[in-house]
């Protein structure tokens, strides 16, 4: 009998695209995919390092697996597995821990364990020095034909003082343009209508695309190549999170005239105070961020702009938080992703003075989430009554279905099977 495998993903869309790639690899090897709440022979947990309770989440998930299928093999991979392999290996019930360089060799490791002694004597750790991680593994999600997340870049050479991603994923490296186009054609054949380009530092695309560390191509080169590609059926492309210092005028101007790249940007800010940005080791000041937003809105007044922001960074005073609030309030952005700062081991920020009390962090998070709600309501109302193209998704929820306009306004309508995976002009 073919063995069965189930997956659980924590974290970002990039993790979800990589889980899909791992799933396809194991299916090629003869594994039968199961839902995570079903009994399976192997469970794979793809972890994240951004949250401060990764260990707690992992332990809870493993305990659930042990109650449901005590004889099953448990594999833990992803960013947290790279950062804390010994800690994960100590969790009762974990059999295999795969670091950044080994997760795409999962089939080989499962085969070696299956052919080994029955008494494995604890979890096997297959990790590595993150500086030795090289090569690019393309991946994309295929669970929903409507919208797919395609990884085109991995790793990061920035060293923001709060972030563990460079330690978890290694140096910046990319797919080739030809490799990206080949994946797009494959997704087009599968009926995908919208592709979201993703990466750890997406705007840094080009490093490693020639097999080395130099940049022979840029993200703008990739955008132009995609826009010009045939890829029948794929009508929409979106750019996921891109650093403001890497979002160039030429990229913005190109999207403004493109019929395939949607008027939607997500641009991390993290703080609206220049002193805190410096402490975070970000590579821009708030003035540059404001310039990016102003140019986008000048060329595309209807464009949706999202921003990431961190509250409670070490040393952030009430006045500096107010500075961030007022800056965001003044900006013509459409929504915020608000993160409460959490101490991460092996980061510069964890050693900084001026720890902000947790209740203060939580209150600041609440204030900015309320601002985000107001901004999204305002942005939506600006387009009320307009006709915009909506791509409707497959899922039915309580007799309703959802879709997104070109400029990322969510639309809910009564479920209609003939609307699924189609772009329809709709009155907002």
What does this entry look like structurally?
This protein is an alpha/beta fold and 428 residues long. The protein has three domains: 125 residues, Rossmann fold (3-Layer(aba) Sandwich); 228 residues, tm_1862 like domain (pyruvate-formate lyase- activating enzyme, Alpha-Beta Horseshoe), CATH 3.80.30.20; 41 residues. The protein is 34% helix and 20% strand. It is built from 13 helices and 19 strands. The strands form five sheets. Strands 2-1-3-4-5-6 form a six-stranded parallel β-sheet, sandwiched between helices. Strands 7-8-11-12 form a four-stranded mixed β-sheet, sandwiched between helices. Strand 1, helix 1 and strand 2 form a beta-alpha-beta unit. Helix 7 packs parallel to helix 8 and helix 9 packs parallel to helix 11. The longest helix has 25 residues. The model has no long low-confidence stretch (mean pLDDT 91).
Please give the oligomerization state of what you see. Answer: single chain
Uncertain regions spanning at least 5 consecutive residues = none
- Name the CATH class of the largest domain: Alpha Beta
What is the approximate shape?
Answer: globular
Widest sheet: strand ordering: 2-1-3-4-5-6
Rg over CA atoms, rounded to whole Å, is: 22 Å
Number of domains: 3
The proportion of strand residues reads: 15-25%
CATH third-level topology of the largest domain = pyruvate-formate lyase- activating enzyme
Distance from N terminus to C terminus (CA atoms, Å) equals 51 Å
Mean pLDDT equals: 91
Main sheet properties: 6 strands, parallel
Q: In CATH terms, what is the architecture of the largest domain? A: Alpha-Beta Horseshoe
Helical proportion? 25-40%
Instruction: Tell me the name of the CATH homologous superfamily of the largest domain.
Output: tm_1862 like domain
Strand elements, count: 19
């Amino acid at each position: 009998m073919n063995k069965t495998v189930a997956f659980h993903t924590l974290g970002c869309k990039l993790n979800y695209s990589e889980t899909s790639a791992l799933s396809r690899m194991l299916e090629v090897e003869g594994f039968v995919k199961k839902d995570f709440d079903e009994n399976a022979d192997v469970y794979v947990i793809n972890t994240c390092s951004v949250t401060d309770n990764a260990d707690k989440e992992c332990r809870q998930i493993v305990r659930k697996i042990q109650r449901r299928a005590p004889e099953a093999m448990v594999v833990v991979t992803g960013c947290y597995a790279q950062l804390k392999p010994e800690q994960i290996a100590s969790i009762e019930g974990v059999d295999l821990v795969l670091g950044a360089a080994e997760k795409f060799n999962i089939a080989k490791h499962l085969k070696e364990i299956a052919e080994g002694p029955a008494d494995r004597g604890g979890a096997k750790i297959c990790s590595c020095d993150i500086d030795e991680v090289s090569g690019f593994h393309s991946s994309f999600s295929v669970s929903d034909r409507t919208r797919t997340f395609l990884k085109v870049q991995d790793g990061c050479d920035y060293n923001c003082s709060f972030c563990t991603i460079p330690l978890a994923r290694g140096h910046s490296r990319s797919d080739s343009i030809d490799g990206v186009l080949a994946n797009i054609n494959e997704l087009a054949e599968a009926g995908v209508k919208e592709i979201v380009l993703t990466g750890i530092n997406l705007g840094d695309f080009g490093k490693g695309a020639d097999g080395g560390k130099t940049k022979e191509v840029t993200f703008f080169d990739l955008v132009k190549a995609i826009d010009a590609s045939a890829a029948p059926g794929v009508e929409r492309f979106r750019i996921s999170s891109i650093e403001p210092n890497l979002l160039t005028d030429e990229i913005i101007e190109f999207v403004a005239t493109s019929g395939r790249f949607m008027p939607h940007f997500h641009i991390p800010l993290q703080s609206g105070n220049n002193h805190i940005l410096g402490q975070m080791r970000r590579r821009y000041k708030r003035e540059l961020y404001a310039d990016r937003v102003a140019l986008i809105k000048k060329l595309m007044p209807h464009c949706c702009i999202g921003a990431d922001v961190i509250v409670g960074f070490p040393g952030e005073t009430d006045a500096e938080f107010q500075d961030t609030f007022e800056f965001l309030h003044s900006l013509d952005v459409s929504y915020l992703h608000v993160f409460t700062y959490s101490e991460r081991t092996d980061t510069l920020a964890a050693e900084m003075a001026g720890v902000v009390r947790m209740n203060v962090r939580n209150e600041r998070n609440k204030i900015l989430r309320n601002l985000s709600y107001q901004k999204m309501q305002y942005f939506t109302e600006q387009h009320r009554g307009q006709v915009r193209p909506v791509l409707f998704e497959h899922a039915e929820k309580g007799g309703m279905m959802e879709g997104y306009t070109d400029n990322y306004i969510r639309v809910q309508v009564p479920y209609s099977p003939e609307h699924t995976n189609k772009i329809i002009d709709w009155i907002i």
